[in-house]
Amino acid sequence: MARRTAVLRLGEVGPPGELRALDVQREYPFELTIDGRVVAAGSFSSPLGDQGWRDAATQIERAAQAEERELSSLRRPLEIVRSAGRHLFASVAQLAPELRAFLADAGPRRLVIFTSRPELHALPWEAMIDEQWAHPASADLSIVHAADRFDPIPAPIEPPLSVRIVIGPRTERKTLPAIEGLLQRASARRIVRAPEGAVAAMVHVEAHGDPEKGTIELERADFLDTQRSATMVLLWSCVSNLMQPWGESLAMKLHRQANRLVLGFTTPVREDTAGDLARRFYDAVFEGRPPVDPETALTALRAALYAERLRACEWASLSVWLNGAVDLDAAVLDGPRLPADGWTTAAADEEWRFVRDQLRTFGRRGCIAVVPNATAGPQAPADAAAEYRGAAIHLRQPQWTADLDACLPRLGARAPSAHPGDSLVAAMKALAAFPDSVLIWTGAGQPEVDALQWLSHLPPGLTILLVSPGAVAVPVGLIEAASGSDASTSASVTAAAPDALETLEACERAGRYSAGVERWDALVTDAARWDPERLRRLYAAGYWCFIRQKGRRAEAAACLDALDRVAPSEAALLRGNLASRDHHNDEALRRYREAERLAANPRDEGRALLEQAYLASQRPDGGGAEVLFRDALSRLESANERDDDRWRSALGRALRDYADMLVKLNDRLDEVEGYLERALVIHSIDGRTSQVAAALETCGHLERTRGQYAKAEQAAGAAVVLQNQFGNTVGRLRSMRELIELALQSGAPARALAMAERLLATDAAGGDEGRIAALAARASWQLGDISKAADWADKALAALPPSERDQRVALGIIRDVARSLGPP
């Protein structure tokens, strides 16, 4: 972001003269421009006389030289320095109302003290603080000096940025690790060490200063005399900006030699402090995410010194001379290439050249593209991501979860749980700090493709390319790139075929319950020889498939009887589910508490608490559900059970059910988004389609609560499609009712009636005729068809159970009012 600029021109502009004594009576003409427009002119007098200036300068130096252990008790120097700075700030602010407003503003700004008079540059401009004792740097105001020229338009450099390092004798070399580390991490395309004797664009100097001579100690004393036209000269050196009697400081001299930015200090600077500042500066400018320009980095350093080391007064010593703004974007280091073993400097082979070409076709657009029928080796060539300045991530099947584990610390991210879906969401959020990034996912299958469509925190500049070895269904919103060759040359990983039990569990996860029952019948005859863990898996999966099929309740109960013998805690949990389906909530709660008592680990404790929370959330008053949900999530997130399907399922369900409760309470809706994103990605990766649909239903409820009916219909419609795809009749009808309800609430009763009548006419209501007829009655009422509304109300009342009291009352009113009006 460009900096707004105020230039305060003081006194004559020309060759420097000798340093005059400051006199509060002496007037200097001034001209003030803000953003290139002259806004005021007049005369300026220093608010500090010569003695006041010397007192402030002496106290800044005293604080800078004090031992660390003395700083906590060093009050007097700070009081004098801040008093002088506050006095100077008030004098400057009163020069013009426009300048006062400029100083009180926030955001990127700079105040340029532009004058050839050395005594004016010697004023403690860097010590200025406002009426509230706040330093302007904390609101991103850069205070810089200029003597001959100033250009606010940034001057970009041509890469690579050449660097010269100059270390004086007798120093502790505290700044050296920062600059040497930068050179080691930088590629030759960005930053290089300047050859001996060559002109460098950036000069790093660490040396002791001589306050009497106005120089710094170097092996070649004349080196800086000939240092001209550099982009930056960084003097991490004592008294390098101390104004001398002959009217110049070393920093000012280098400024006059056309070096664009010069950093110096008016006082001695601790070597540890210099080392820390150098490290923070280079990190912010060359490796920050996002990186910042040098002036912004130095402004932030001044603000940090004021906040962290107030009494040391280094914030008042750090000085910047500027001929013009600096643009080092071309030298910023590329972001990390992760994981380290996922990249190679070797040339791309034929497969990777194809992938790279697809990336270049769809890249730099912030999109997600899928390349079907293509494979690529386990190491991506570096040139595949050469155009991306941010992070580059290569995830590989089947080890992508381990790859993500290696990436997160380098991205500064931490997942809330061990589930890879949470790791993926955390990585996407972290990549927002790395503009212009790329993620290449080789070997991706349908679950990975599906999961990415639900990411709501996808950074706008991030490009994702999924390379799938087979054909995949590409969701709407993702781009299908050119298909790869059917004949691939690199060795691809072939997953072992799942055994029959795993197939049964996959059917249950996907909501394909009829297929699951078929597999159960083929498996159960061999179960007598199985170990207890396989038996637990068999009977648990069997229960879920049977209980969701009409007329198979006896088989579901038999599964629970078998579970009693091999997994009592699991049996108690599922018996609670069975009781809740019959609305025997007291019995269900007893069973869930029994499961919690029998639990031997955080996973099973969390599962039992989740069921109790859900039960409580169905009561009108919520019944402590909030606390129970949070306890359940805490247990589940703390469990490291990545390979356990029970844990994965419960974690996703807890997130969705908690979000659903918050939506119904119309509470913390922004927080709900995060829970739903996690739930959708977790269930998609696990292939738990019915749970994805349930989470989409809650997304629809969320958007309906917000009044975003188009988004709500999109979510509910996606849930209908998923439920229909896998034959989940109950779930499909629930989502269809939501679609009809949305049409009614958004003022589209004709569409609502059409959907309701279509369901009822095609026998697709599946035992839900009462609720759907009730929706048809409301739609007819809104359309003004009173007779049809009465007819549909009659049909609904005949089918709805007595427990639907509120709805029956409303329908009775529609019917009775319509009939009281007589025939049309």
Record the SSE blueprint.
Elements: E1 4-10, E2 27-34, E3 37-45, H1 50-65, H2 76-93, H3 97-104, E4 109-114, H4 118-121, E5 141-146, E6 151-156, E7 161-167, H5 176-185, E8 191-193, E9 202-206, E10 209-210, E11 215-216, E12 232-235, H6 250-256, E13 261-265, H7 271-287, H8 294-308, E14 318-322, E15 324-327, E16 337-338, E17 343-344, H9 350-362, E18 368-371, E19 380-381, E20 392-396, H10 400-411, H11 420-430, E21 438-442, H12 446-452, E22 463-467, E23 479-480, H13 500-510, H14 513-523, H15 532-547, H16 553-566, H17 568-581, H18 585-598, H19 602-617, H20 625-638, H21 645-664, H22 669-685, H23 689-706, H24 709-725, H25 729-745, H26 749-761, H27 769-783, H28 786-799, H29 805-820
Parallel strand pairs: 1-4, 4-5, 6-15, 7-8, 7-9, 9-12, 12-13, 16-20, 17-19, 18-22, 18-23, 20-21, 21-22
Antiparallel strand pairs: 1-2, 2-3, 10-11, 13-14
Helix pairs in contact: 1-2, 5-7, 7-8, 10-11, 11-22, 12-22, 13-14, 13-15, 14-15, 15-16, 15-17, 16-17, 17-18, 17-19, 18-19, 19-20, 19-21, 20-21, 21-22, 21-23, 22-23, 23-24, 23-25, 24-25, 25-26, 25-27, 26-27, 27-28, 28-29
Description:
The chain is an alpha/beta fold and 824 residues long. 48% of the residues lie in helices and 13% in strands. It has a six-stranded mixed beta sheet with strand order 8-7-9-12-13-14, with helices on both faces. The protein is built from 29 helices and 23 strands. Residues 486-495 have low confidence and may be disordered. The two termini are 69 Å apart. The protein has five domains: 4-146, no CATH class; 153-331, Rossmann fold (3-Layer(aba) Sandwich), CATH 3.40.50.1460; 337-480, Rossmann fold; 500-746, Alpha Horseshoe (Serine Threonine Protein Phosphatase 5, Tetratricopeptide repeat); 747-824.
